[in-house]
Structures are given as structure tokens and as C-alpha cells.
Amino acid sequence: MYIILVYDIKEKRVAKMLKLCRKYLTWIQNSVFEGEITEAKLMELKYKASKIMVDTEDSVIIFRSRDEKWLDKEIVGHERNPVEQII
Amino acid sequence: MYIILVYDIKEKRVAKMLKLCRKYLTWIQNSVFEGEITEAKLMELKYKASKIMVDTEDSVIIFRSRDEKWLDKEIVGHERNPVEQII
Fold first, then answer.
1. Using alpha carbons only, what angle is made at residue A23 by residues A7 and A8, rounded to the nearest 5 degrees?
2. Contact A34, A61 (CB under 8 A)
């Protein structure tokens, strides 16, 4: 299953969330991740995310598609290199 | 055509971009929009966005799907009410 995950997390919790999402998905922009993931791994990710999040302030949106080929991705402007954020 | 648009824009240009994207799409989270749009309208939106953006600093990612039903959307945590941001 291919997913796009977008989070809106208060700044003090962002670093933890970023680190968590990177374990499961590929970071593509600011608070946006994508990748192939199994249902079991996604449940694990959501569980761990819920431990970081404060429900009244933070949110995560997950778009799922059975197949990545159903989606075209286009990047306009500066394409950030994930490597620059890993260091 | 159904699209998800996510932008990563420097703060001083965010208000303009938000206003622009709202004319074409539905705001769903922080810097994330979705909606049905025609190819012509999307070209118009991209053109106008490029006038706001600084290529070396800003970026916009557009995911397109021929049909919204190919994507499931799930919101975890606080679902922001778009109305609260319109005012």
C-alpha cells in the first residue's frame, strides 16, 4: 500500500514526529512523507504517532492508495534533497 | 481530476499562497489542500503560484489522481475546521 502522510504538529513535538515518520516513510517536503507500507506497519506508526501527539493541537492526515501508479507527483520549485535533513 | 497540493513556503509569502490555493481547492490542514480541478484551472493555479514563489526557497508538491475514490483519507488527531481559518 502506498501512502502520503502529512502532519501538522506543534513545534516542540516536531522533531520526535519527524524521526518517527522517517523510520517508516520517505520524507519529501517539510511535513510530508510518502512510501510503501504494510497495514501492520501503518498501525504501528499510527500508534507511535498517537503517543507523541496532543489530540487537541496536532493532526496527521494519511492518504492511502492501493497502488502508487494511481497517483502522479509533480514538484514545483525547490526540490529539497532529503539528505540535507538527515545530517 | 482530484489533486492534493502541499506547499512549503517561507512565512512572508504564506498568506498570499494560502489565499490563492483557497480559490481553487479546499484547505484541509496547515499547508495541505485537496479538491477536484480541471487541467486548465490547475495550469492557472500553477502559473499564479509560480509568481508568488521564490524557486530556491519554496516548493509545491501536487499529487494527482484521476479519481478521488482511488484514495482513502484518514485524519488522526485534531481535525481543523476550515471555517476557523477563513475568518
1. 10
2. no
Residue of chain A nearest B30, judged by CA positions: A8
Q: Do B55 and A62 count as a contact with CB atoms less than 8 A apart?
A: no
**CA-CA distance, B69 to A72, in Å (whole number)?**
15
Query: Is residue B68 within 8 angstroms of chain A, CB to CB?
Result: no
Supply the pTM of this predicted model: 0.80
Ramachandran quadrant class, B30 (left: phi over 0; alpha: psi -120 to 50; beta: rest): left
Chain A residues within an 8 Å CB radius of B46:
76
Contacts of A85 in chain B (CB under 8 A): none
Q: What is the pLDDT along chain B (87 residues), one digit of tens a residue?
A: 889 999 999 999 999 999 999 999 999 988 899 999 999 999 999 999 999 999 888 999 999 887 777 778 888 877 665 544 444
Alpha helices in B1-87 (DSSP H): 11-24, 39-52, 82-86
In three-state secondary structure terms, A20 is helix
Q: What ipTM was estimated for this complex? A: 0.74
Q: Scanning every residue of chain A, which has its alpha carbon at the shortest distance from the alpha carbon of B61?
A: A75
